[in-house]
Each structure stands twice: as C-alpha cells, then as structure tokens.
Amino acid sequence: KNEVEQSPQNLTAQEGEFITINCSYSVGISALHWLQQHPGGGIVSLFMLSSGKKKHGRLIATINIQEKHSSLHITASHPRDSAVYICAVRPNNNDMRFGAGTRLTVKP
Amino acid sequence: DGGITQSPKYLFRKEGQNVTLSCEQNLNHDAMYWYRQDPGQGLRLIYYSQIVNDFQKGDIAEGYSVSREKKESFPLTVTSAQKNPTAFYLCASRYPGRREKLFFGSGTQLSVL
Known about the structure:
heterodimer; A: 61% strand; B: mainly beta; 7-stranded mixed beta sheet; 4-stranded antiparallel beta sheet; 0% helix; globular
C-alpha cells in the first residue's frame, strides 16, 4: 500500500464546476505539499500545509492532521486548470513521498 | 531569476553506456532531490542530499549514482547497471522552514536506443 493515496485518479469537469481532490497518507508528517504538473512535465508548487487551511485565488487547500487527510479544492474551474495535481508529504526527516497524481480535465 | 536548471531536455542512452543528467540551482538551497517518473505513476525518489558532500539513497537507487561537490550542483549518473532507464527524471530542491516550498527543474526524458 502506498504511503500517499490520492483520489480520484482521473477527473473530468465542466468549466465553472467546483472540484475536490483528496489525499490520504499513512505516516507522520512535518509538511504536506500540493503540486501541479502541466503537459511537458514541469511541476510547480501550489501550497505547503502543516495545519489548517490556505487559499490562493480560486484554490483552497485543507489538512486534517488527526485524520491524515488533505483536500485541494478549485472553485469556478477553468480549462487552464487542466493538469495533474500531486500530493506530497514530508515525514519527519528530509525525504518526500508522492501520491500518483490526479489528472484533471476541465472542458469548456 | 532563481531556479533549477536541468539539462539536457532529451537524452538517449546506448546499451552499456553511462549517462549523466545535470541539475544546477541558484536558490542557495541545501536539500536537493532526484526523482524518476514513469507514465501513470507517482514520483519515486532516487537520491537526496541535505548538504554538500552528503547524500542518501532513496527507494530506487540501484543503477544510479550522484555527487554533491558544490551546493549548486547535484548531477545524476545513470549507469549501465540500470536495466530499465527509460523514464522522465526530475530534479528538485527544498526551501526549508515555516515557508517550506519545493522547486522543480523542467525534467529530462531519458530513452534507450
């Protein structure tokens, strides 16, 4: 069993829909990251969470440390949000563990 | 602009050949990482380094080697012992502390001829 599980694996939405991507992990962590990977492979960092909730534009990320669960929400989705979203956790060392990613397609 | 530079973007390896992937950063980060990404799979850790002249094996280090002689540079060598090297390779660094953030290079696609 992977230490980081994401769901769903694939997600198709219509423009404007509210989107939720989930991440569950099985290890104690110091930090959780949400990343975005576009076609072509480049990865950008969206959020780092150690507790609570963060918001940036139309993106909201939450984490529940007790339940070992995080969610990434996209409000008013747009075709340019189409990408692979990756959850990564850092256990209490300097290593990183990655989920397999959620492929999001937003149709106009 | 600060960032991570990986080169080359595409690389072809012949049977029995060692190849080296370059990763350079000007972010002054101590922690650097090499990951392998196969289609439909998550990133898997090959090696990581927390400081100059120190590095640790990740989950799939067999057939790979690294060096960290300078803070800015963390090259990865794919040796002939790596029997299935075709993959997308990503280098990353981490800014530590309360504003922890990961930075990634644009990746190298390695293929076997």
